[in-house]
Design brief:
- The complex is a heterodimer of chains A (about 160) and B (about 140).
- By secondary structure, chain A is of the alpha+beta class.
- Helix content of chain A is about 35%, strand content about 30%.
- Chain A is built from 3 helices and 7 strands.
- In chain A, strands 1, 2, 3, 4, 5, 6 and 7 form a 7-stranded antiparallel β-sheet that branches.
- Chain A is globular, with a radius of gyration of 15 Å.
- Helix content of chain B is about 40%, strand content about 20%.
- The longest helix of chain B has 11 residues.
- Chain B is elongated and about 70 Å long.
- The chains are: A alpha+beta (about 160), B alpha/beta (about 140).
- At the A-B interface, helix 1, helix 2 and helix 3 of A face helix 1 of B.
Chain lengths: ~160, ~140
């Protein structure tokens, strides 16, 4: 399978989409961080699939449990006595991934790639072929926000083999 | 009397966020996790406004909206879409189904509250004033 967009194009899309979601929804600034092969501890992973007529793929947000806790507190912190539960953290990460994927989908459409987003799927282990720097067609970006780091990857490939 | 808002979103995060946003107002917020549950809630509660996601399991927002508009008891309920989906085809589809507004996630809270306030009256919660000490 070929990649309809270059890795550089996907990185540029991620570079616009990720900070916009953090800035608008969490009122926090994020910074690109150096690429690291170190695994994210106790990862919370959300995957949003994107299917189009000419290309398909997925977008994956990976953040530590501690980072997800901080995100949940930022987002819902003054919700009375709300204390995020285990499943709630998966939902927070899933919803953020959904928002980023929505922005990415808009950028893909602007480049002639139309597709449909699917509801986010949570997991605790990396889906096969994503978030792996050794996979040549994947775009993996690293980010820092205050005390936590996270990654966001975009993997879009042509449907024709 | 409290205004009734029905929040239909598969994300508990969004439902909690909306609950927090409307807590300062005299609003009764009901929740549903997909379009099917949303329809059942709408029939039971008869909300004054529905805030509806598009991309949900079981029944998506457009399908739910089609059912809503074909139900004589529910068809006039105003709907605001709140979704990460910005596909013009989806926006056209829900526009034809008479949605009052379309907000793309990520979203800012104040503009959403302002849009809701244009559709239903949002009165601040009345906080109980302290009882003065008896002399």
């Amino acid at each position: 399978m070929t990649n309809p967009l270059s890795q550089q194009e996907l990185v540029e899309i991620a570079d616009r989409s990720v900070p916009e979601v953090w800035r608008t929804q969490l009122k926090r600034e994020v910074q690109p961080s150096p690429t690291s092969n170190l695994p994210i501890p106790s990862p919370r992973i959300a995957t949003v699939a994107w299917t189009g007529s000419s290309a398909s793929g997925k977008m994956v947000l990976t953040i530590s449990s501690a980072g997800a806790q901080l995100v949940a507190q930022t987002l819902l912190g003054d919700s009375g006595n709300y204390v995020p539960k285990d499943m709630d953290l998966d939902d927070v990460v899933g919803e953020l991934c959904n928002m980023i994927a929505g922005r990415v989908s808009t950028e893909l459409r602007n480049r002639g790639l139309t597709g449909t987003l699917h509801p986010p799927l949570p997991s605790r282990t990396s889906p096969s072929g994503t978030a792996n720097p050794s996979t040549p067609t994947v775009c993996l970006t690293h980010w820092t926000c205050g005390d936590y780091t996270f990654t966001f990857s975009i993997d879009i490939r042509s449907n024709a083999s | 009397m409290n205004q009734k808002i029905l929040s239909i979103d598969d994300s508990k995060t969004i439902r909690l966020l909306l609950a927090r946003m409307f807590r300062p107002f005299q609003v009764e917020l009901r929740e549903a996790g997909n379009g099917e549950e949303g329809l059942a809630q709408a029939r039971e509660v008869r909300p004054d406004l529905i805030i509806l996601d598009y991309n949900m399991p079981v029944m998506d927002g457009v399908t739910m909206l089609q059912h809503l508009r074909h139900d004589p008891q529910l068809k006039s309920i105003p709907v605001i879409m709140l979704t990460a989906e910005s596909n013009p085809k989806v926006i056209s589809a829900v526009a034809r189904l008479g949605v009052r507004d379309y907000i793309v996630k990520p979203f800012q809270e104040q503009p959403l509250i302002a849009k809701v306030g244009k559709i239903i009256p949002l009165h601040p919660q009345i906080t109980a004033s302290p009882i003065p000490p008896t002399p």
